[in-house]
Amino acid sequence: MRIVVALGGNALLHRGERPDAAVQQANIDRAVTALAALARDNELVITHGNGPQIGLLAVESAADPALSTPYPLDVLGAQTQGMIGSLLARALRAALPGRQVAALVTHTVVRAGDPAFARPTKFVGQVYSREVAHVLARKRGWHIAKDTTGWRRVVPSPAPEAIVETDTVHALLSSGTLVVCAGGGGVPVTADHDTGALTGVEAVVDKDFTAALLAEELKADLLLILTDVPNVYADFGTPRQQPVLDVTPAQLRDSAFPEGSMKPKAEAAARFVERTGGLAAIGALDAAYAIAHGTSGTLVRPELPIG
């Protein structure tokens, strides 16, 4: 079975943790332990978030006196892919002796005219108090918005249109290689209509939407979105909260989800199932094997035919 796995940002750096390399390595070791059993019997492609990491690099870049201007988000996104990809690849090689593992810097094509560029919504970086966030916004020209626990920087998040390296990922999978790619949604670029030349843009693509597109392009059997809750909950955080265990895309969309957390995961799962007729599942990282075998998490399946 061919599985595309989308690791949530919590798999790499939990809220409130110091962004030290050792902390992230420990979290990645835990994630790889959960994925190793799946990788032994399946073709696996692993994607990951980069919100905390790209936010940290953006702060460092903005404060670096050696730079005349901070590095743009596409360059910072490439840096996070290299760092996180290396940590994941090393841990995967240790957990799966003899298995070939490749971490691939991946580019995601977006439309220059995407309205998301005028409406920044994607949270990146750490959480600030309201006062500190507004000071940083004035000083650095950031857009900020309220998150569930405080205030954070928000950046444009255009929709992914294509993944440049899909054919390369296909070739690697055909050779038996486990692939880490499309980290942080991929490096966002626009493509020249005539020449195909790629130009980086100031944005961060949602990693779940990119994972869904990648799974579609790779003709994956399953899109597995892993996070820090055991399954999707309808009316999360209210007295009416209840688990959602087996749904169609339409039923999933009928549930109310917070804009910045479960909503993009639910929409990505729904899109993949609608476009391919495959299966998607959402659940806890530690239960990855059980979710893939239908005994945990939320299963998103196609509509059953009538008659």
Automatic annotation (TrEMBL):
Keywords: Kinase, Transferase. InterPro entries: AceGlu_kinase-like_sf, Asp/Glu/Uridylate_kinase, Carb_kinase. It catalyses: hydrogencarbonate + NH4(+) + ATP = carbamoyl phosphate + ADP + H2O + H(+). Pfam families: AA_kinase (PF00696). GO terms for cellular component: cytosol. It comes from the Bacteria. Gene3D superfamilies: Acetylglutamate kinase-like. GO terms for molecular function: carbamate kinase activity. The keyword Lipid metabolism does not apply. GO terms for biological process: L-arginine deiminase pathway. Transmembrane segments: none annotated. Residues 1-276 form the Aspartate/glutamate/uridylate kinase domain. Belongs to the carbamate kinase family. This is Carbamate kinase. The lineage of its organism: Bacteria, Bacillati, Actinomycetota, Actinomycetes, Kitasatosporales.
